[in-house]
Design a protein that fits this description.
five-stranded mixed β-sheet, alpha+beta, 23 strands, Dna Ligase, domain 1, globular
Length: 475
């Protein structure tokens, strides 16, 4: 996609001089030989191949398992910028948890007229099975990945709230390990906040959410759909890093009112299950009866306080892109404060006037499915053909409530290394947030995703994007 709007270059000013945040890195970069950097780039690819850092792409005719494209020019954020972002992220995550508790209990936000009742009642992500259920510490979103985009020096927007099963954190960790391995001298010259504590923090956070039935040191396990899942590498990586068991549905069963996993000593209870299986497949007795991925009866044990499921079932409603459009109201309702981080302006196509505007302006807008993810099922108007626009117009008219629309933002750029040298590419940022009764822990930085094709605004790895190491400078 070609973006013809002015863009904010995060590394360089308009005159070509480096911004303060990049000053030391730019000085180092000027003394590097291009051939050495290209060799390091090839070395990084070899490291990723050796480690097995892959993801799967669905719906492609060619081989579906690919290496994660990695660019070795870091994305750098100042300590002051990060402090501002972290405050806004924490406020938003607190509001999300309060919102989830409320909609599964008294629904005060609906009674107050701040959110239309049909946004919940007609929402396929709302789980009636969660009504009246209060997880330990009232934590619903144990792990959150908040997608941010930047359009100017002090202009950040939240693009999405990933509160269901956010992925990508293993790439954040491996990107940093790769950079430390290849350029140790850089980290002695530039003080960067570490990210390596994430697995320990995740384990500590999950253990702090142990259910009432737990009487000793909580046992944590990671539930994966299996090796064919697009994020299986990450599931295995996190289980290993947390010293937790990696399990599939067939490894688990209900024993004496607990969910237990098969071991060499028989079945042993699990206290906290970090699930990477969608709600619909979690329990064939309560959801999809054909599911082979979940555990029959696990929802009954969960409701009785016998196990903690992270993230809680039903959190997907906060990922709904129509609910997203109400987030400024949600933040204010539950915190009493104005949202520190801005939303992208959003048209809800379920509303007749908004639908008319969207249909009249499709070539200029980005249109997304309300439950879509991964860059699938969306229209990027400025990059679409006339036929694609007309085909999407028919979808909108047939099911307007299934879509929202947003303006095409001029996303900021960070250089990538190409064979011809450095070239600007658009980026977004997914910081990772851990929530427990003990508080909120935000890893400094996160996963920077980069659109590797010139002018493209689509950063998803499933759509041809890559990743960068994200540096948050120390004070």
């Amino acid at each position: 996609m070609v973006d013809k709007k002015p863009t904010f270059d995060e590394m360089n000013r308009a005159d070509g001089s480096p911004r303060d945040t990049y000053a030391r890195y730019s000085q180092w970069l000027e003394n590097q030989d291009t051939a050495r950097l290209n060799a390091k780039s090839a070395e990084a690819e070899a490291l990723f191949r050796l480690t097995g850092i892959t993801f799967n792409v669905y719906g492609m005719e060619e081989a579906d398992e690919r290496l994660i494209p990695f660019d070795l020019v870091p994305r750098i954020i100042s300590a002051n910028e990060w402090r501002t972002l972290a405050k806004g992220i924490e406020q938003r995550v607190r509001a999300l948890n309060a919102f989830l508790y409320d909609i599964y209990h008294n629904q005060e936000i609906i009674r107050a007229g701040r959110l239309p009742a049909e946004m919940i009642a007609n929402n396929e992500a709302f789980l009636p099975q969660m009504i009246g259920v209060a997880p330990p510490g009232n934590v619903y979103t144990h792990i959150v990945g908040t997608d941010l985009v930047r359009t100017g020096p002090d202009e950040f927007f939240v693009l999405e709230d990933n509160a269901r099963t956010p992925s990508g954190v293993s790439y954040m960790l491996e990107n940093r390990e790769t950079m430390l391995h290849m350029f140790p001298e850089l980290f002695s010259q530039i003080k960067v906040q570490p990210v390596s504590q994430y697995p320990r923090a995740l384990r500590r956070s999950l253990r702090a959410c142990a259910p009432p039935a737990c009487t000793g040191m909580p046992t944590v396990a990671v539930l994966t759909p299996g090796i064919h899942n697009s994020a299986y590498y990450e599931h295995a990586f996190l289980a290993d890093q947390m010293d937790a068991e990696l399990v599939e549905g067939h490894d688990l069963r209900v024993v004496d009112g607990r969910v237990a996993m098969r071991t060499t000593n028989g079945y042993e209870p699990i206290d906290v299950l970090y699930r990477r299986v969608d709600d619909d497949f979690l329990d064939p007795l309560n959801f999809n009866p054909d599911s082979m991925l979940g555990v029959p009866g696990i929802m009954d044990i969960y409701r009785a306080g016998g196990i903690t499921i992270a993230n809680a079932p039903g959190t997907g409603i906060s990922d709904d892109k129509a609910i997203y459009s109400y987030m400024p109201d949600i933040v204010e309702f539950y915190t009493g404060e104005k949202a520190l981080l801005k939303n992208v302006p959003t048209w809800r196509c379920s509303e007749p006037e908004a639908l008319k505007y969207v249909l009249d302006n499709l070539p200029e807008l980005v249109v997304k499915e309300v439950h879509g993810s991964g860059g699938y099922g969306m229209l990027v108007g400025p990059a679409a053909s006339k036929k694609e626009i007309e085909d999407f117009r028919a979808k909108l008219i047939a099911k307007p409530a299934g879509y929202i629309a947003q303006p095409t933002l001029a996303l900021s750029t960070v250089p990538i290394l190409t064979e011809a040298g450095l070239a600007p590419r658009h980026v977004d940022l997914r910081p990772y947030v851990l929530v427990s009764p003990d508080g909120i822990d935000i890893t400094p930085g996160g996963l920077t995703r980069v659109a590797l094709n010139e002018g493209s605004l689509i950063v998803n790895s499933s759509q041809g994007g890559g990743t960068k190491d994200t540096w948050v400078l120390e004070e």
